[in-house]
Structure formats: structure tokens, C-alpha cells
Amino acid sequence: MTDKRQGEKSPFEEAIWIGTGNMGLPMAKNLLLSGIKLGVHNRTPDKLAPLLAAGARATSDLSGSLSRTPLVFSMLADDAAVREVASKQGGILDSLPTGGVHVSMGTLSPSFVEDLAKRHRERGQILVSAPVFGRPDRAQAGTLTIVAAGPSGNLDAVVPLLECMGSPVFRVGENPSVANHIKLLGNFTLGGLLETLAESLSLARKVGVSPTQLVEILDTAIYRSPVFRNYGQMMAREEFRPAGFRMRLGLKDVRLVLSEADRVEASLPLADLLHAGLLSGIHRGLEDWDWSALGQVRAEDAGAVRQNASVRHPPED
Amino acid sequence: MTDKRQGEKSPFEEAIWIGTGNMGLPMAKNLLLSGIKLGVHNRTPDKLAPLLAAGARATSDLSGSLSRTPLVFSMLADDAAVREVASKQGGILDSLPTGGVHVSMGTLSPSFVEDLAKRHRERGQILVSAPVFGRPDRAQAGTLTIVAAGPSGNLDAVVPLLECMGSPVFRVGENPSVANHIKLLGNFTLGGLLETLAESLSLARKVGVSPTQLVEILDTAIYRSPVFRNYGQMMAREEFRPAGFRMRLGLKDVRLVLSEADRVEASLPLADLLHAGLLSGIHRGLEDWDWSALGQVRAEDAGAVRQNASVRHPPED
Amino acid sequence: MTDKRQGEKSPFEEAIWIGTGNMGLPMAKNLLLSGIKLGVHNRTPDKLAPLLAAGARATSDLSGSLSRTPLVFSMLADDAAVREVASKQGGILDSLPTGGVHVSMGTLSPSFVEDLAKRHRERGQILVSAPVFGRPDRAQAGTLTIVAAGPSGNLDAVVPLLECMGSPVFRVGENPSVANHIKLLGNFTLGGLLETLAESLSLARKVGVSPTQLVEILDTAIYRSPVFRNYGQMMAREEFRPAGFRMRLGLKDVRLVLSEADRVEASLPLADLLHAGLLSGIHRGLEDWDWSALGQVRAEDAGAVRQNASVRHPPED
Amino acid sequence: MTDKRQGEKSPFEEAIWIGTGNMGLPMAKNLLLSGIKLGVHNRTPDKLAPLLAAGARATSDLSGSLSRTPLVFSMLADDAAVREVASKQGGILDSLPTGGVHVSMGTLSPSFVEDLAKRHRERGQILVSAPVFGRPDRAQAGTLTIVAAGPSGNLDAVVPLLECMGSPVFRVGENPSVANHIKLLGNFTLGGLLETLAESLSLARKVGVSPTQLVEILDTAIYRSPVFRNYGQMMAREEFRPAGFRMRLGLKDVRLVLSEADRVEASLPLADLLHAGLLSGIHRGLEDWDWSALGQVRAEDAGAVRQNASVRHPPED
């Protein structure tokens, strides 16, 4: 069912890369290892230095460069950032030639991606959506998990390049937004794990079970999963800061899930629970804590820790 | 924090084993490998044959045997079964000598275990609670995960024997019921995983994401956990029968969790959700399906599969 | 706090009325009793006959009539219907003179009303929002409850006319959308009543309490409320058809409430429950039943009635 | 269906009354107006003065008096208090003659009442359960609502006496515990009203609707119910103290409802919500506030009022 062709070669010899943040920079660096000629673009040119040192060239005239290149990658933070660079005068939609391919790798909303794909099609261009799972360390190591969707022939051409950034690359069909649904569902399952841990640890505290030991035992006995162990130990030790993924961002993704669910008339009671729990956390002053501080919210509601966490934990310097 | 002494030797040279079901039989067999002399007891003597072949002897006079042995193991299905063999005339409480140790390995409720420990103490006997994680295959392979609690000196003496049945053996303190809390919390975290999967797969079906592919991708990208993959694929393929763990039993454990939570005044909204979902499943006729058929309940409520599952899936032969 | 001036006279001598459905027709008829000259408009002129008989005149040229009249009422089904008649060429926004007043009496979303008010202001026109509580029988009797918001001086001029249609008329300030929030919150409190009744009656059935007697007793002992009694008896007797207010419409209002809540970052767990319950009802085939058939959903989930209601209750002829 | 015989006369000429608290005292006083000879009993004899002044006589020897009287009323706070006076040596069960009738009017759990009825039957005695709706003011005015269940002939004899204390008296069949189920369901519907109001008012505050005006309008337009108006205005004005019914007591009743639901395998998601909300309130320090302070909990979670209510509202003197 899942097609992982490895070792094939991409027909592309050059590309443009847009977006050189914590994720985009190491991803572009790994792409250079494929031997492709890479033009890189950033609103703040200073950020490009490491890539220029690795063999990329800077594209000061983005519109002109786009018009001469059949392939552009974007790795941007959200819908708004992609909308800006895609829709502006001289942006991707305007400038990419007919038959050109846009590989969007950011975490975007499925409905935005559907709309973007349509607009590319109207111009004879192609959108491949290829969001990634993993944090900056995996981006550097080239071990991201990548989910790619788009027209089959274009995927054939692009996947060998994606494999420089991560492996496996999962191909999930012709409809680009399906890849973004999967990314979003992945974040929702993490939310479900947080709720599960939050309640388990609250009860553990109240009945006299050691939180850290509980996580160790359940991971050994049942889960054997790094993500269970890591989030479990963060919650057990109440290490909610600095945030790896802020509660505010977790709420954003849960809202996107609920919005998709509403669109297709699916009820998701656990997602409702997460929505209420994260909102309550934000109103308790935990907005900038890691979203695993959902554990703090549930523990307060269960009387397992003292109330008023934000007073107890003064802001960091 | 967690103490795993391995390679030490138990001072016990003989013991009695009560309970030779799917789990108890292979566990007792592995215990024999430690070289201990083992008397085995079952209400249905036929069941003892494999153990007698492996070197155990049958104890027809349970009361007499108990009175001459310092150590008895029980591996029984529930509170009621242990209550019966412990409290009856000539049962464990009556017959075990002063200083004798009862190692209870079944999945019992924490409050029953607390009460049993008290009654042993009143007679100068000792209760060690040592519930296990794992199914019959791991019991046979001697790879169960065991959580043991009881007085420290007694644990020192018993753990080397437990290590013949599984490893690691986690020691979680002096209070026997803590081990049972951990076992129960483990089952609750599985319930949380089921709810998470059930809702994710419902939404996936409605937005056009392949359920089996979703599970494969999220396991690779995030969870890397056999239990996530196994339950996920069961739900994705709607393979709810034969049941590995019946919905009715899942409900029983969720009720025990809610009952403990109520006792200590903790609210557990996810446990409430599981309670309602499993009850609804039972009222839809899914009582004897695997508890992962919670996925069926959520999918019906979300309009992701046809209603009236029990009509659609006729009973097995 | 709430201002109910009665007996005053409106300075307006003529007005236009748009929307002559089940509600609009009797409301316009009552308005005629004030002595005002009323031009009436409907896309289907036949519907105007009863109003013409009562002294109104037909406005075939809506745009021309609007330009000569300082006051227009609209009583339309939803945002879309008002958007159409307000925004089209020669519509209300185009044609109403500077200083003209638009009294919108339909159940519209607060955010739509905010936007409409802004567009009226930009043209020097005034929006008064005046949604109503009550069904066609109360519209005929002139006993609707009306909630009016808009600039104070304009309210002074309009309220005497509204009082021909219902009483009391509550004035709730200068911001038109506040009136629509109140209407929406009213429907949400009805949803809360339905959930309360649904669960009470489910439990009653299971423990052997007569549902109809329960409703009678609780209404006498606690509620003394016609709406409690009416909805309670509908549910107790399982009289869900024909629908007074369809489940699909109930869902629409709950979604509007959740959407407003999301906008201001409020969590509403009961609204989430209603959303899930009504959606589940729709997926069970109850879309066109009265929204009190939430009682059917809860009773099925509690095992208090047989499953598969839609099969049991064949469609009406 | 509901039988309200009025104006008939009871065959009983004398009775004993146990329990003279805020409710019991005025109820006994009204019972005296029927002309019955009443012996009254209280552990603290001082409390009897007002009844003696009204014509009752004190029964110092409870056991002896019971053995000579065919009818005893109890109006006690909870299961424990009734268990004590019914089961002790020389208590009601011991001393009431064969054929004697015990009318229990307190708010007791249905399962306790079932058990008590069985024990009375075993002794040839009869239990009539007759819990009441209403507060001390209605007890004084003789306008309680009373729900009575028990053997039909005994009800015939007792109802004329109950009608001195309140009216209507609803007869709900032969099974005494059914009356207690109805009382409990009544309190649950109040809880549902509180949740509905709590969320409505939270959203109202955030979108700029006046809470007091909202309650007034919705009561006029929809509910027309004193209990809606009273609780609504308490919440709108944040007048949670002194408590009319403490949050801790509200929690107790919700727990009883959930316990009955669990026994018959009914899921009640709104009751779960109330359970979690009230528990959270208790852990926030609101234990002794009125249970309508659920409005405070929901408002804090929605960010509609400041956190940490208990700090903000110092304890009363």
C-alpha cells in the first residue's frame, strides 16, 4: 500500500528553496547533498550564509529566478506565510512556469492546501504537499518522516530529493491535502496521549503511586515508545518550561482538527475535551508553557497539585 | 528509583501454586525452572497434568499443605476468586503459618488488596502483590513485566522467583495495593489510546485518508510502539473479533478506575468518556467484541461507517 | 436596567415590510394596527393577499419605494436571505436614504449583524436588530417577546411599533449584535434543557419511574415552566414527529454558539455535548425529527430504548 | 395517571414523629392541624418546645411508644441517620408492631430505601417513602410537593395526613424507592439547569451581554420559571454565599445519580460533566459556597472572570 522507492534519481537539476528557519535551514542543507543546484531565498539575507557556504547561491530576484526554474520548495510556518509568498505580485503563482512544481513542506491547514492546489492547477502548475514529522535535530540528521501527496508522475520526480531530507517518505495519493490531514491527525494523537497521561498521573498522585515510576513501568510493560516516555516524564516531573511546543500552538492544531471535523459532520469528544482543557490552561496563564502542561490543568482540577500554577511558577528570566 | 536486583537467589525451597489457567499454567512452569519444589492446586485436577510432568506435585489436601509451607502463590481471575480461596475454612488465611508469605499475582482491585493485606497482617502473615503485564505468549516465554509491592525483606526473598516468570520486576514499595493501582492505570492508558485511535480513524475515514496507512505512518513518525500499531491496525481493519479483551472487561476496569477516582475525589473526564463509549457499545450489542470496537462506536456516531454494527456482523459460529 | 416604555407613539408614518412567511405575515398584520402606512414586498406576490386585505399596499418597485421611505423592516430566515435583499443592486443598502432605519427581526448570526451594521453606518443609515422569541401562534396574538438593540434615539422611534407585535420589548443597548447573541443564547438554554430531560428520562426508564409522571411531578415541584412541561412530555411520549424545530436546525444554532465561543476563547462543555449528541442523532437518521429526539439518542446510548430508531419509526407519509 | 385524592380522612388517630430540624419541625406542626395525637421525639429534647406548645406530647421512651403506635414518621437528614434510628436496639424495626407503618420523608438513596423496605416487610411492617420538594418556607406554609410510594392501601390511609404538609401529594406506585428516585432526578435536573446557566452566562460576559438582563429576558421569553430566574440571578450577580445548598451536597446527589446510573448501566454525560465541574469547584476552595458557584468554575475556565475565586472572596465572618 505504501510505496517507498529508494535509490532512484530525480530528473531535476536545479531548484529554489524558500524558508530557512530552524527546520528549513537543515533541510535545505541536506537537499544540497543530492547534487542539485539550489537557489535560496529569505527575507533576511543574513540567514542564508550557512547555505551559501554549503554551495547554494542566493536568489535576490525571486520572481526572475522562479520564472527560469521548474521546481520550488517552501518550508514556511503557516497558511499566512505561504499565502504571502505564493500570491503576491511576482510570487510563486505569478512566476513559476507552466509545468513547474511547488513542493510545500510546512504544516498547513488541509483546506488552505486544497485551495492552493486548485490555483496552481488553474495556471498549469503542480502542487506537491509534503509535510514532515520531526524536530530540528531530526531535520539535521536527515531522518525526518515525510508524507507526500500529489500527481503520481510529479511524486516520482520529487521523492528522490525528499529522501535526502528524511526517510521513509510515505506517498499518500494524488490529493495534496491528504498529506496535511495526516500531519494534523498525528498532532491530534499526541494530544490524546497528553490527555491520557495527564489523567493517569493525576490519579497516580492522589493514590500514592510515584509519577516517574508509573511512566517508566508503563513504558516498559505496554508502550515501549519514546514519545510516551518523553512526554510522560515531562509531566511526571512537572517540567513544562521552556516549551517545546507551546500550549497556544497545541490549541491551534486542535481547533484545526475540530474545524475539519465540523466540516464533515464528525463528532470528536476527545478533541472537545482537549479544546476545553487547553483553553482552560491558557486562561490560567499557561499560554507559553509546553502543551504538556495540560497535565497541570487536570491535576489542579483533580486536586492533585496546588491551584494557581502561574503564581507558583514565576515567569522565567 | 526502581530497584531491579537480578541474579540473587531466593531463600525459599518450596511453595504452593494456586490457579492454573491460561496465565497461571505457564507461569508456574517457569517457576519450576528455579529449582523450587512446587505443590500445585486446582479445583479441576486434570488441569495439573502438564505441571506434574514438569516436576510439580499435586496438593490434594490444600489446608494441610498450606500449613507446612512458608510460601503460596495465587494467580486468579478476580477479587471473588481470591476471596473464596483466601477466606474459606482451611483457606490461605486460615492455614498459612505465621510468617508465611502470600504472593498474589492476579489483576485485583486496589481496595480489595488493601483489605486482604490487613487481614494477613492480623494473622502475622505477609501479602506481596505482584500483578503482571502481558498475555499468555509472554507468560510462556517468561517475559512478563511484573510489578511487585510488599514489605522490603519479603520482596528480597520473592523477587528472584518472580524473575523466572518475567523481567524486569519493578519494586514499587511496601504498600501492596500500589502495585494494583499501577496495573489498573496501565489498562486506563490503553483505553486512552483506544479513544485516540477511534476518533482519529473516524475523521480519517471521513476526509479520505486511508486508515491502515494512517496507522503505519503515525507509528513510524511518532509512536514507534507495538501496542499503537497493533490496536491501530485492528481498528483500521475493523477486526474486532475474536476478542483479545472483551468490551465488557474493558468496562469493568474503567469502572474500577472511576471508583478509585471517586474515592479520592479526582475527576477524570477521559475516563468518563470511555465509560460512556463502552456502555454505548454494549447497548449496541458489542459486549463480546474486543474493546477496540470502541472504534465502531465512535465511527457510527461520526457517520463514518454504517449504523447497526451488530446486525451487519452476524455472530460467529 | 431593562427599559420598557409603553404607550409612546412612533414618529414614523410609513414603512416597508420585507418577508411574509409564517412569522412575518402575522407580525406585519399586527404592525398595520398601529395605523402606519405599510408597503409590503415578497418575491412571490400571491403571499401578500392577506396583508393587502388588511390595508397594506404592494411595493412592486422595491428600490424606488425604499428610496422614498425612512423605515424598512425585514423578517427573513437566515443570514443568506438578508444578505441577498440588503446587498443586491437596488437592495436595502443601495436604496435606503441617508438617515433611514433598517429593523432586522430575523434570527441571524451576531457576526453577520455586526458586519451589516457597519455597512449601514458607512452609508449614513441605521441598523436596529430586533429578533423575536415565540412561534407563529404568538406572532398572531401579538405576544412575541422582542429584544431590540441599536442607537438609542432610533430605538425610541421604533419601539412603539415593535410593541404592536409583542410585549415586552427589551432594549439591550446600542450594539445591534447583542440582541442576536441573546436570541442565540436563548436557543442554547433550550438545548441545555433538552439534554437535562433526555438524561433524566433515560435513567427514569431504566429504574422504573414513569416518564410522563416524572415530568408532571418535576414541573409541579420545581420548574413550573410551560417549556419544561412541553418538551418533557414530548420526550416522555416519544412524540418526535412532526418536528416543531428540526434537529438539523438545532445543530445549526449549537454550531453558531460554539463558533462565537471559539472566537472569544470560551469553552462550553455542555455545548460540545449537544453538538456531539445532535450530530449522532443526524447520523442515526433523525435529521428531520424534532430536536427533542436528542432524547432518543441518549436513551439508545443508555440502553433505555431499542436501538435503531429510524428503522423502528418508518418515515411519515 | 397521577392520583390526587383530596378531602379524604385518615383512619389513623395517633402517630410518632422523629426528626425536628428545619424541615421536620414545621412539617410536624402542620400535621398536628389534622387533629392527630402526635408523640414527638428528638435526641435534643429542647428542640421539642414549639411542638409541645402546639399540642404534641414528648415520647421519652421511644421503644415503648413505638410498640403502642401503628404509625411513625421520620424526617431525617440522610441514610445514616435513618439507619441509626431504624436499626438500633429498641429502634423502629425492633419496636413497631406488626402491621405498623413507617413513613420516611427524608431524601435518602433509592438503594437504602429498597433495603429498608425489605427489612420492614420481613417483620410484617410497611414502609411508605414520601420525600418532599421545597425549602423550610414551603414546609411552614404547608405547600411542599410530596411524592409518596408504598402499598396502595397504606397510601390511602396516609395520604390525607401528608396533605396537611403539602399539596399536591403524588402517588407513584407500590415500590417505595421509586419516590426517592424521583427526588434524586429532580435534583439532577436542577444541576442541569445550573450547568446551562453557568455556560450561558460565561459566554454572555465574554460577548458583552449583561448577565442580569439575559436572565430576565430568557425567563420572560422562554422559561417563565421561578427556579430559572432565582438561580440565574444568583449566578448573574455572583451571589454564591451564604449557601442555600452547599456545593458539597450538590456533589453528593450527583454521585448518587451516577451510582444509580452505573448500577443499571446507563451513561449520563451531563451528570459526568456536573461531577467534574463540582469536584473542580471543591478543589478551588468553593466547597461551602452554594452549588450555583458552578457558574464561577465555568466562568474561570472560559476566561470570563478572574481566576482564583477563593482568594478574591475571603471567607465570611
* Total number of distinct structural domains of chain A: 2
Report strand order across the widest sheet of chain A. Answer: 3-2-1-4-5-6
Q: Looking at this structure, what is the CATH superfamily of the largest domain in chain A?
A: NAD(P)-binding Rossmann-like Domain
The biggest chain-chain interface is: A-B, 67 and 67 residues
> Which residues of chain A sit in consecutive blocks of at least 5 with pLDDT less than 50?
1-5, 310-317
Largest sheet of chain A: 6 strands, parallel
Radius of gyration of chain A: 22 Å
Summed up, the helix count of chain A is 15
Class by SSE composition of chain A? alpha/beta
Indicate the CATH topology of the largest domain in chain A: Rossmann fold
Q: Beta-strand percentage of chain A?
A: 5-15%
What does this structure look like?
Four copies of one chain form a homotetramer. In chain A, strands 3-2-1-4-5-6 form a six-stranded parallel sheet, sandwiched between helices. In chain A, strands 7-8-9 form a three-stranded mixed sheet. Chain A is α/β, with parallel strands linked by helices and 317 residues long. Chain A folds into two domains: 14-174, Rossmann fold; 181-312, Orthogonal Bundle (N-(1-d-carboxylethyl)-l-norvaline Dehydrogenase, domain 2), CATH 1.10.1040. The first copy, chain A, has helices at residues 24-32, 49-53, 62-67, 79-87, 92-95, 110-122, 136-141, 152-162, 176-207, 211-223, 226-236, 247-263, 269-283, 294-301, 309-312, and strands at 14-18, 37-41, 57-58, 71-74, 101-104, 126-129, 132-133, 144-148, 166-171. The first copy, chain A, has 15 helices and nine strands. Chain A is elongated, with a radius of gyration of 22 Å. Helices cover 51% and strands 12% of the residues of chain A. In chain A, helix 1 (24-32) links the parallel strand 1 (14-18) and strand 2 (37-41). The interface between A and B is large, with 67 and 67 residues.
